[in-house]
Amino acid sequence: MRLALALALGCAGTPQVVYHPDVIEQVESDSDKVVEIVSDERLPDHEPFAVPEQAVASALLASGMFLDDDARALAGPIAARLATMHADEAVRIVGWAEDAPRYYYVLVHHHRLQIVYYAGSRHADEYSGVIPTEAQPIHAPSEAAQPAQPAAVPEPAHAAPEPAAVAVAPAPMPTARPHRAHAAVPGYTPITEAEARRRLHELDEALQAGLIDEREHRVKRKEVLSRL
User: Fold this and answer.
1) Computed from CA positions of residues 200, 42, 179, 1, in that sequence, does the dihedral angle turn out positive or negative?
2) Per-residue pLDDT tens for 138-173?
3) Closest by alpha carbon to 58, among 115, 119, 138, 117?
4) What distance in Å separates the CA atoms of residue 70 and residue 40, rounded to the nearest whole number?
5) Mean pLDDT, all residues of the chain
6) Are the C-beta atoms of residues 54 and 75 closer than 8 Å to each other?
């Protein structure tokens, strides 16, 4: 994890603390928001779960944090990752509103779909929704059913019983949250909010001047947001 001090100067001239999680994967979506898989130590453990796309869309809308178009565009990419992410991972959605970044994290915790919202580096809101019963938990291979053992054949009644050794099973170890070595996304370098604000302003001016079209503006805007 990386905790970087952004040198973005606000109205009062004080530096702002910006948290940068480990970015593991960039996810394609039709939304103008950025979708990523990240490892963020501030979030609860994720429980791999196969959640239907419609259930994800309903949760995004019920949270009050997303419009209908965003919910439809984001639900598919999010649902596809919820069954494969590790315990220390989450889906991060990055948007921009009122000249500042907005971060939304989606994961499954305690059998509920969780959406955690950060305004910059400040925890602002969260939503927790029930997962439909048709959703399927993803079990680790070690939890799979073991093959049945053959029944022991009883000894003849006249045989003298042999002394049995009493085996003491070791106490189970507490389940620890797995920590994996995350490979850096090629070309990913975090930037400050001030730098993002400058670049987005330049893109808006280029669009208004006709130097770039709507598609190029959208692609380059997402490139900037993905580095926050």
Assistant:
1) positive
2) 665 554 445 555 555 555 555 555 555 555 555 454
3) 115
4) 23
5) 81
6) yes
